[in-house]
Amino acid sequence: MREVIDMESQSDNIPSTSGNRRRSSATAEAVKRMCPQQRARYLAYEEPPKEAKTWMAKSRQRVSAWQSTADGEKWWTHVGRYHCDEADEAEKRRQDLVIGQLKAAEARNRLRQMRLQYQNLKAKEINLMISGQSNAQTALRLELLLATGQSNTHTNDCLDKLQVGESIHVKMDCTHIHTNTHT
Fold it and tell me: Where is this region: Disordered (predicted)?
């Protein structure tokens, strides 16, 4: 008989797997005995006290009153979550555009610096390989095989220019070819 009582008490501690059965409400003493995590989980599904409900209702009323006081020149923005007029919004758009252009210019500059660093390291490595040859003939062959200098023609990068001007200027910048006069 004792085994039956022990099994019943153990089955009470196991959470029920059936979804339609509601958990029995615990007494205040049982809630106090729970560990903090279990208590927080239990109290998360309980109804809040009346005092908390009144605070929530008052805060909802303040927010709805604040939102309803917006007149024709002001509106609720999803970005800043505050009221602003058209001049503020235009200034924010202009600042966002300038910041975007600055970030793009910084990224292009980083790419250019990395490209130049790679080309310099490659040229140093080739020169080291050439200088390490046993005789002049193999060094000359290797130098002709591996071009140490950069190519003479480069197309201008269209992304280096801000595309503010007319499309004619952009087309002219893209098709312009620079020639390198290094010998």
Answer: 1-33
